[in-house]
Amino acid sequence: MLKKTNEEALIENPGGGEFEREPVPQSKWKGWGSFLGMYAGEHAAGTEFMIGPLFLTAGVSAFDLIVGLLLGNFLAVLCWRFLTAEIAVKNRLTLYFQLEKISGTTLVKFYNVANGVLFCFLAGSMFTVSATAIGIPLGMEMPALDDVGPNGITYILIVLTVGAVTTFIAASGYDTVSKAANWMSPVIVLAFIVCGIVALNQLGVNSFSQFWDIWGEGGQPMGGQIKFTFWHVVLWSWFANAAMHVGMSDLSVFRYAKKASSGWTTAAGMYVGHYMAWIAAALLFAAFLKTPAGLDMLSSGDIKVAPGPLAYNAIGWFGIIAVVLAGWTTANPTIYRAGLAFQTLLPKSPAAWGTLVAGALATVAGLFPAFAMQLLGFVGFYGFILAPFGAVIVFEHFFHKKAGIRKNYAELAGIQFNPAVFWAWAISFGLFYFLSWQFDVFVSFVTLPAWLLCGVLFLVFSRKWQQRA
């Protein structure tokens, strides 16, 4: 889901000579086909094995899940097409260089650290996903939905091992990572398809009405999850990748596009990964709940949403392999990208050091299965933090003339810290986080208002401070 595959990570490699501080020349522009496969592959990953079952534990109804995901993913595609890709082909700059021009180098470092830490938490949750598969032949006790810390020495040893191997590979360079991801992505997509088909057979589904009845009118949430309604599904699926589209992270990808219409290729990711894969993974959990082990789990109230056993229950050892590969292909490039973000703090140090720091932090995070078990909330919070930075770029691009402000002000004024950017983000984040916390509002409901407020405040503050200069 949030995994950045080979092409994007290579694009953003600051040491790779990939035009990280200049517009991409026309000779390097790519057609829409270069993006289609990338997005289709990157959004069918380890996170999908967790998110699908978590929808079911949130008590969604059939209509809320099936129609809500259709709408929410379509809104995400529109953002990629008419905001991210549109700005990318106009400026052809990475997010980091574009943000540096507006906010200054100091604020970009703050963004990079925040981005890197959140990426480490995501990678850590994928270590949990892989551990649930590797732990099956080892007889490991699976983490429960409400577990916070590790539940045994076997889990700890598996996470430490997976973390060390993943970090070592990521630190050795991206060539190995990218080649492996190219081979693994089709296998993972095939696994989701097979899992969905097998789960339907296990559930005895022979018609669309029977498929619809799997979720029916929904139920009560399990294991401390909140109840998901139609709008929870729509807004969560819309903003699951908020940092990438309205947050403008994928400027770094679409700066290579010949036309902004390449933004439509994100639909492949949304409807292969964020629709087919999520529903297939949810079907795995639904099928498991019908087994004696699933019925015992429900009666005990000790809810466990472990991707490994779910996939193993459907397709045996192929399921175990698919879960391990999916977790690995998410965690590896995620650690690599987090390392690049940390590297900006010490640009003269060896590139591998940033990756090693990121891997260590991700491994520690992986010891706490709460990051994986609460992935719906974490992903929503991730987008909520980073998306408003993208509003700064969007509002400056489309409204700088009407607002009477100068573009790329930090670059023009030679400043390292643009207070207009910082205070616009801090006020919008602080206000809506307080409202979310005080009134127990799911964070995806306040992501769009925070994004809009940040953009408006940036224009207002920029006009004020630029007139003073």
Automatic annotation (TrEMBL):
The keyword Membrane applies. GO terms for cellular component: plasma membrane. Keywords: Membrane, Transmembrane, Transmembrane helix. One of its GO terms (molecular function) is cytosine transmembrane transporter activity. The keyword Chaperone does not apply. The chain crosses the membrane at residues 62-83, 117-140, 152-171, 183-208, 228-247, 268-289, 309-331, 351-372, 378-399, 420-436, 442-461. This is Purine-cytosine permease.
